[in-house]
Amino acid sequence: MSILDDVMVNAKAAIDDFGKKATDIADSSVLAISANNIKNEIEKKYTELGRIYYNEVKSGSLDLDDLEDLTGEIDILMEQLHAVQAKRASMRNRKICPKCKNAVPKDSSFCNKCGASLEEESED
Ligand SMILES: [Zn+2]
């Protein structure tokens, strides 16, 4: 378990540096671990959000401001996740459908899962 923890920590460090030196990250499997790591964080935030919401409704003092920080954190994690997924897809000569997040061959004009047009996507 401690080896896995080390990998997670390294993956997290990779994420922290992601914006600065994305090209230094050459290992697709590290990105996969990073993506899973972020997904787990997002699930934790959702759980926390639900717990706060439940407790506040239950006590009759629902304050949406209390939930705003968490929703903001989830948005940031989602952006990180999408950046990692896009990077990983591009390393595997694929790109991510903006509509359904399916990884499709890079030269596709349409998503083979949901049929969305992929022509406009040209960020690198
Ligand atoms: Zn799609």
Can you tell me about this structure?
The protein has 124 residues and is mainly alpha-helical. The protein folds into 2 domains: 3-92; 97-124, no CATH class. The protein is 59% helix and 5% strand. The protein has 3 helices and 2 strands, in the order αααββ. It has helices at residues 2-16, 28-58, 65-91, and strands at 94-96, 103-105. It has a two-stranded antiparallel ribbon. α1 (2-16) packs across α2. It is flat and about 55 Å long. It starts with a helix and ends in a 19-residue tail after the last strand. The mean pLDDT is 83. Residues 97, 99-100, 102, 111, 113-114, 116 line the site of zinc ion.
Layout: helices, strands, pairs:
Layout: H1 2-16, H2 28-58, H3 65-91, E1 94-96, E2 103-105
Helix pairs in contact: 1-2, 2-3
Bound molecules: zinc ion.
Zinc ion binds at residues 97, 99-100, 102, 111, 113-114, 116.
- Calculate Rg over CA atoms: 18 Å
- The H/E string reads HHHEE
Number of helices: 3
Q: What's the oligomerization state? A: single chain
Strand order of the largest sheet: 1-2
List the bound ligands. zinc ion
Please indicate the percent range of residues in DSSP E strands (runs of 2 or more).
under 5%
Shape: flat
Helices and strands: which structural class?
mainly alpha
Low-confidence stretches: none
Integer average pLDDT: 83
The tally of strands reads 2
How many domains? The number is 2
| Fraction of residues in H or I helices | 55-70%
Largest sheet: 2 strands, antiparallel
* Head-to-tail CA distance between termini: 36 Å
